[in-house]
């Protein structure tokens, strides 16, 4: 299938969206993780070339000035011989690819349409002008002049909007008015959404571009630049000559092909009447126009290149190409010329529509539709060069033509004037915007006349959007509505779901019909509906996905707008800049709505024993992350939690349910009452987290505490191989699953280092079961219902970098230090660590490393029937700059800790002392070491800074184990698509060490440097240096690079997010950096 010419380089759909679409504006990510699938293959279509007489035609307007043409033909010699040599041929339509570099979309569910093969049309041999006599003309001087007018375009779509996704791309344009500074390129390059672009001329001078016009339908648009910015050359312009295009013409396509700044591709025009290429439903698609075709083999980056004749005139505009053939597709310039003339005079370009799509059919197919011989005769006489007529292909519901035109109608005339080609018909419609036209069509076996009101095409082309909860919504456009045959104005289109709409699974490609009780036909109604909500509440959202417009859905949306801006952007026509206006935010939930709610317990039948004794302590925990920090690649998580202290609202869950501290947490009690909660502890080594809700929000008693077995909770007993247990777990539909089984094995939990770095479970033993049910998690208990273990999901990655999860059982004794401290003091206990990753070692391996026989005998004497003899050794260091890292080495065998033999990993996973005395075996020698421990942060991340689309934070624990040393404490955790950070080379996993030659060591240094930079830049405003900042970065391999980054505080203002216990979410945003 065909792709348009601007190569899409984009994120990530994992909702971890590499800055997911779930985080809305983020890149990399999943939710929609906003990631467009490659287009489907097109079919092969056999096409037969009709025999045509070998004539040369001279065409002139008829004396009457009407629609007829007077044609004088002179038959060349040997026409009969030429006719005898004519043969049919087969044309294969291949999958189309981009002729220019096109960004991939941010939604995982972007929809691809079936490719529509081109109509079987005769190959034209005549045009509006005869073949030029090239004489002694040469391509060399022509191209030398032309390249001074052709520019390489670097652009960033800073927000997903309509058919386009945020991201960076390159393309081509060429100067068509040097004095006014007008550059012609494709519509998908100029972009309907907010775009920042620069043009680089052949001498490598860079100028800023303003998008001043993009056609609502056809693939062309104009940029404007200031010619005074060119200091070392004078721009030249290329003349537009649409009338010169003809089959057999030798052409050159000059532009930024496949990322090369300047490439020259040769070709020969083969068709002038090709059907407009289809790039997929939901994508931008041109229609109601012919395209030209040649075998020039253009590829990514060549969008907007001029198609030149040997005299240096542009006869067409390069737009798309085929991925499996050398075919390239060019837009005719018939509608570009009048638009350019109006823009030169600073006048609006009128564009009209009746919301009907037309196609050109040859006469043989028209006869099958019922066209009479008399009408065909009159049409052929009036338009001898035409080989078909226009037919209605589709009519949009609720449009001006709905109920008046039908698919299959053959268009005869507009206001009594016949039209058989797109350009003249469109010109007639554009001249009647806001007025009625009389359309005559042939339907079946009779002529039908109807009167249609011509609608302003610009009025149904969106020029505003709302940023809401990290996502973007805009009015449903004519482009998208036409792709799916739905009415314009059906609702607001989700260009990027973001944090809030993603909580209702309203991904990119959805159309929101209603929020709560308020219909949302447009962005104004959407803004009012949002303002009527209450912050922190849950509201129903009615929407449908474009791939199933007949299937409406209603889902619950969590209203959490405090993480992101809430504003409306409106495009300024003169400059292309989008001006923001702050919108009214949802109001705080009134106290009257915060009254306690009852959550009645639902008893389970005795047949599900012992689940009936623990089920009341189960709750459902949901977590949504507004930003992809701390190595996240998804933004939505859900799993079971168990209440360990109902009076205090303490709930324990695994870290695959609550992976980080930055986000919204909710706890659902008895499948009835949803309560807000907040994170109070993330265990840095073991796979569990503790969240807290307010039991005062519940009417009556809170959920009961989970019944823990005293011996297992105290650590006197633990889960052993062969032990009988009952698993009580939760399925995906929140129903219980109960199974009696046995412990199959007990082993050290092994997890791999992840990319990007994120939490992994280390230094803990887990168990597997003989018969493991499919579930989200739960508990392991005895027959009497006393809990002896947690059944949790452990996240990791395989060797290919794919995320994996495994279900394991953990001893409840792991909870004791944390739960006891929270019950006693209300605060998380201090957790200290040696920052080492421990693995078990058999005595045989220790013997080979030089361990003495006495030590081995001690280890073997400590063995039990349930536990084979083993020792522990250091598999790796978890942090490079800690005291332990300077004393311990990989391969050290731990023999003693504070005078006691080391037998169990739980003794060293976390410690309470500030230092421990260790005896280790290293290189065959026993060493005594006094090793200080490191205090671990139970929240990991407490501040995030946003600058130019980069989310910066202090390196978290998972990062530390993947580097030899820390270049600085300023770590890039995520970059957002379409931002300066993403465009100029800042990448997640880098450290910033300098900004404009100012060293930065800590995040505080970074914030201070940004303020100094803002003041310094204001003094140099207007210079090239004021637009760029030098940033020195270091990657995990400690390789240093210096990047130049163009600061954009309009679309990407700086802000910081920091912890605030007084806030309901536990976080507050500071925007005045």
UniProtKB/TrEMBL annotation:
Q: Bias category Basic and acidic residues: which stretches?
A: 1-10
Which segments does the entry list as coiled coil? none
Pfam families (alphabetical)? PDZ (PF00595), PDZ_1 (PF12812), Trypsin_2 (PF13365)
Q: Where is the PDZ domain?
A: 355-430
Q: Which InterPro entries match?
A: PDZ, PDZ-like_dom, PDZ_sf, Peptidase_S1_PA, Peptidase_S1C
Location of region: Disordered: 1-54
BP-aspect Gene Ontology terms: proteolysis
- Recall the GO molecular function terms of this protein's record: serine-type endopeptidase activity
In the record, the note on similarity to other proteins reads:
Belongs to the peptidase S1C family.
Q: Which PANTHER family match?
A: PDZ DOMAIN-CONTAINING PROTEIN C1685.05, PRO-APOPTOTIC SERINE PROTEASE NMA111
Q: What is this protein called?
A: PDZ domain-containing protein
Species this protein is from: Coemansia interrupta
């Amino acid at each position: 299938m065909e792709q348009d010419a601007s190569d899409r380089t984009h994120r990530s759909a994992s909702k971890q969206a590499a800055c997911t679409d779930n985080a809305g504006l983020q890149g990399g990510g999943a939710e929609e993780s906003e990631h467009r699938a490659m287009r489907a293959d097109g079919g092969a279509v056999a096409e037969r070339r009709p025999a045509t007489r070998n004539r040369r035609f001279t065409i002139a307007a008829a004396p009457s000035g009407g629609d007829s043409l007077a044609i004088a033909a002179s038959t060349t010699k040997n026409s009969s011989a030429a006719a005898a040599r004519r043969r049919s041929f087969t044309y294969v339509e291949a999958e189309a690819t981009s002729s220019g570099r096109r960004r991939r979309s941010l939604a995982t569910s972007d929809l691809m349409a079936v490719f529509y093969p081109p109509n079987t049309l005769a190959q034209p041999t005549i045009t509006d002008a005869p073949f030029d006599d090239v004489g002694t003309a040469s391509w060399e001087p022509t191209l030398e002049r032309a390249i001074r007018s052709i520019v390489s375009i670097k652009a960033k779509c800073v927000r997903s909007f309509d058919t386009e996704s945020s991201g960076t791309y390159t393309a081509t344009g060429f100067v068509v008015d040097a004095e006014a500074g007008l550059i012609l390129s494709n519509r998908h390059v100029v972009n309907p959404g907010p775009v920042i672009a620069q043009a680089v001329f052949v001498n490598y001078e860079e100028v800023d571009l303003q998008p001043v016009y993009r056609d609502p339908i056809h693939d062309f648009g104009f940029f404007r630049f200031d010619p005074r910015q060119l200091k070392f050359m004078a721009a030249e312009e290329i003349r537009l000559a649409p009338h010169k295009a003809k089959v057999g013409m030798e052409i050159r396509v000059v532009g930024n092909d496949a990322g090369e700044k300047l490439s020259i591709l040769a070709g020969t025009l083969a068709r002038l009447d090709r059907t407009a290429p289809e790039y997929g439903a939901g994508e931008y698609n041109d229609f109601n126009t012919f395209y030209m075709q040649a075998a020039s083999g253009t590829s990514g980056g060549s969008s907007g290149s001029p198609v030149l004749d040997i005299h240096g005139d542009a006869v067409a505009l390069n737009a798309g190409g085929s991925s499996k053939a050398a075919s390239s597709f060019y837009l005719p310039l018939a509608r570009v010329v009048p638009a350019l003339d109006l823009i030169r005079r600073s006048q609006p370009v009128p564009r009209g529509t009746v919301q009907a799509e037309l196609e050109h059919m040859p006469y043989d197919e028209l006869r099958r539709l019922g066209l009479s011989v008399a009408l065909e005769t009159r049409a052929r006489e009036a338009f001898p060069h035409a080989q078909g007529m226009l037919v209605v292909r589709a009519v949009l519901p609720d449009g001006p033509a709905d109920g008046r035109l039908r698919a299959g109608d053959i268009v005869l005339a507009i206001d009594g004037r016949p039209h058989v080609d797109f350009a003249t018909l469109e010109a007639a419609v554009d001249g009647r915007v806001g007025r009625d036209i009389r359309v005559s069509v042939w339907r079946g076996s009779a002529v039908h006349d109807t009167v249609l009101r011509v609608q302003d095409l610009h009025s149904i082309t969106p020029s505003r959007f709302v940023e809401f909860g990290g996502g973007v919504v805009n009015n449903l456009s004519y482009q998208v509505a036409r792709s799916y045959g739905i009415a314009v104005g059906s609702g607001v289109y989700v260009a990027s779901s973001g944090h809030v709409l993603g909580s209702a699974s309203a991904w990119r490609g959805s159309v929101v019909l209603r929020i709560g009780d308020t219909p949302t036909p447009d962005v104004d109604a959407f803004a009012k509906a949002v303002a009527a909500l209450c912050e922190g509440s849950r509201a129903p959202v009615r929407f449908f996905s474009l791939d199933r417009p007949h299937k409406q859905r209603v889902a619950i949306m969590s209203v959490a707008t405090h993480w992101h801006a809430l504003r409306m952007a409106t495009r300024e026509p003169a400059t292309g800049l989008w001006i923001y206006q702050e919108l009214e935010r949802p109001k705080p939930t009134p106290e009257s709505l915060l009254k306690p709610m009852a959550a009645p317990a639902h008893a389970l039948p005795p047949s599900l024993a012992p689940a009936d004794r623990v089920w009341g302590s189960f709750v459902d925990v949901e977590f949504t992350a507004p930003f992809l920090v701390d190595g996240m690649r998804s933004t939505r998580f859900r799993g079971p939690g168990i209440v360990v202290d109902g009076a205090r609202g303490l709930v324990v869950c695994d870290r695959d349910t609550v992976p980080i501290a930055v986000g919204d947490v909710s706890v659902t009690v008895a499948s009835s009452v949803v309560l807000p909660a907040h994170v109070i502890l993330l265990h840095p080594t073991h796979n569990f987290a503790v969240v807290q809700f307010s039991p005062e929000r519940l009417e009556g008693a809170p959920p009961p505490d989970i019944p823990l077995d005293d011996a297992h909770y105290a650590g006197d007993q633990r889960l052993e191989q062969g032990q009988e247990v009952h698993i009580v777990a939760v399925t995906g539909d929140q129903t219980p699953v109960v199974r009696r089984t046995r412990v199959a094995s007990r082993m050290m939990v092994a997890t791999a280092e992840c990319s990007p770095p994120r939490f992994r479970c280390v230094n803990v033993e887990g168990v597997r079961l003989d018969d493991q049910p499919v579930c989200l998690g739960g508990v392991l208990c005895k027959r009497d219902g006393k809990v002896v273990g947690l059944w949790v999901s452990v996240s990791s990655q395989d060797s290919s970098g794919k995320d994996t999860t495994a279900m394991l059982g953990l001893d409840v004794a792991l909870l004791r230090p944390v739960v006891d401290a929270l019950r006693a003091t209300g605060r998380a206990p201090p957790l200290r660590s040696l920052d080492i990753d421990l693995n078990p070692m058999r005595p045989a391996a220790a013997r080979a490393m030089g361990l003495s026989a006495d030590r081995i005998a001690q280890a073997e004497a400590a063995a039990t029937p349930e536990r084979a003899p083993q020792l522990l050794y250091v598999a790796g260091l978890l942090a490079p700059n800690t005291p332990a890292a300077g004393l311990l080495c990989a391969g050290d065998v731990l023999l003693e800790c504070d005078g006691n033999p080391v037998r169990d990993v739980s003794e060293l996973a976390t410690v309470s002392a500030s230092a421990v005395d260790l005896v280790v075996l290293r290189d065959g020698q026993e060493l005594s070491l006094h090793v200080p421990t490191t205090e671990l942060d139970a929240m990991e991340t407490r501040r995030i800074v946003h600058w130019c689309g980069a989310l910066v934070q202090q390196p978290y624990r998972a990062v530390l184990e993947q580097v030899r040393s820390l270049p600085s404490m300023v770590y890039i955790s995520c970059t957002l698509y379409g931002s300066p950070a993403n465009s100029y080379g800042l990448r997640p996993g880098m450290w910033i060490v300098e900004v404009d030659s100012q060293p930065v060591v800590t995040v505080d240094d970074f914030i201070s440097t940004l303020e100094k930079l803002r003041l310094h830049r204001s003094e140099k405003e207007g210079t090239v240096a004021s637009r760029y900042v030098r940033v020195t970065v270091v990657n995990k391999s400690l390789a240093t690079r210096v990047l130049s980054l163009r600061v954009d505080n309009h679309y990407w203002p700086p802000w910081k997010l920091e912890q605030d216990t007084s806030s309901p979410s536990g976080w507050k945003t500071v925007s005045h950096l």
